[in-house]
Amino acid sequence: MRCNSCEREYDPDNMRWYGDDPYCEHCFYESYTYCARCDESVDRNYCRYDSNDEPVCDYCYDEDSDPNAPDDPEVFDSNRTEIISLANNWLTGKRPKRLIKINRYDYRLPEIQGGLGLVDHALYLYGLQNREQYQIKASSNLFNRVSQYTTLNNWNIKIETNTGTNRIGISKTLRKNKFREVIELLEELTVDTISQEKAA
Domain for residue 30, yes or no? Predict the structure, then answer.
């Protein structure tokens, strides 16, 4: 396998990945590192650091940040519907729905975010590279629901527990070959279970 930076050939087992691009270990650590909390690869140029000076991804950093602090995010076209919905819900006193958070540069994640639309409960979705050990990583509060859903729907996959809450990583193969099913799984995870129980 060829390194995306130095273009030398290496054993695939020794490659590191950023998004869908393979790197040799030397080139990877020149430009990237791993989040100290969730192990997601992070670009060093845009890396944030926690109070222990450890590198963290945006999601893990935001979990620690002050929710009352002013924020000036970049607004993408896919966020416009969410912004309008949040404003309308705020004006009418309804519980807001929102888009799931994603790593916008991972394969098919923006399409999944758009296909899922606005949801009741926040969720962070990130991409995983294809591995034999697992195809989905789910935070402990989602693990049982993901496991139950995939078993009932005959997904022959391995799931591993991840740190944090409301986080799910899905392998590239699943994003590519089970696109609709991934959206259905996420719909199940983000539905307002309290409203469902009241309706029953």
Answer: yes
Spans of the chain below 70 pLDDT: 62-78, 89-90, 93-96, 192-200
| 59 found inside a domain | yes
Angstrom distances, CA of residue 110 to CA of 21, 25, 116, 125, 166: 18, 28, 10, 10, 18
Give the Å distances, CA to CA, from 184 to 104, 116, 122, 142, 178. Answer: 20, 8, 16, 15, 10
Domain assignment present for residue 16? The answer is yes
pTM listed for this prediction: 0.54
Position 5 in a domain: no
The kind and range of the H/E element at 152 are: helix 140-152
Please indicate, yes or no, whether residues 108 and 187 belong to a single structural domain of this protein. yes
Structure token pair of residue 180 = 């609709």
Residues 120 and 161 in one domain: yes
pLDDT in tens, 25-75: 899 989 998 888 887 888 888 788 887 788 888 777 766 555 555 456 566
